[in-house]
Amino acid sequence: MQGQENIFASLLPLIVLFGIFYFLIIRPQQKQAKEHKAMLEALTKGDKIITNGGLMCEVVKAEEEFIKVKLNDDTIVKVARDFIAKKQEA
Fold first, then answer.
1. Which residues pair with 58 in a beta bridge?
2. Which of 14, 16, 51, 78 could form a disulfide with 66 if both were Cys (CB 3.0 to 4.6 A apart)?
3. What are the sequence ranges of the domains in the chain?
4. What pLDDT does residue 16 have?
5. What is the pLDDT of residue 55?
6. 80: which residues sit within 8 A by CB, 6+ positions away?
7. In 22-76, where does DSSP find H-type helix?
8. 49 burial class (0-12, 13-18, 19+ CB within 10 angstroms)?
9. At 17, phi and psi to the nearest 5?
10. Which residue from 90, 33, 43 is spatially nearest to 66, judged by alpha carbons?
11. What does DSSP assign to residue 38?
12. pLDDT tens sequence across 11-70
């Protein structure tokens, strides 16, 4: 009996640390990744976005893997969805 109690007592701090680690780090990152994915899927023509490189541009056409964006009046480029940081709110 005492051997089982000692094992439980020695594992308890590890279980508590894992719980703290999960709720402070893993869960918020999963939530943020889910929100970012939903934002990428909801992009439509005319939305203003900011890329990871810091470029502010306007969505021209959302494709499957890439998004065509307008940098200025006559420059349109394709940007991979992975490199879009956030949607700029009005």
1. 48, 70
2. 78
3. 1-42, 44-90
4. 93
5. 94
6. 65, 66, 67
7. 27-41
8. buried
9. -65, -40
10. 43
11. H
12. 999 999 999 999 999 999 999 999 999 999 999 999 999 999 999 999 999 999 999 999
Three-state secondary structure call for residue 62: strand
Q: Which one, of 89, 2, 3, lies nearest residue 47 by Cα?
A: 89
DSSP string, 3-22: HHHHHHHHHHHHHHHHHHHI
Cα dihedral 39, 44, 50, 56 in deg (nearest 10): -170
Structure tokens belonging to residue 4: 């089982």
Contact status, residue 35 vs residue 42, Cβ threshold 8 Å:
no
Q: For residue 83, which of 63, 59, 53, 56 has the smallest C-alpha distance?
A: 53
Identify which has the larger pLDDT, 49 or 2. 49
Architecture of the domain made up of 44-90: Roll (2.30)
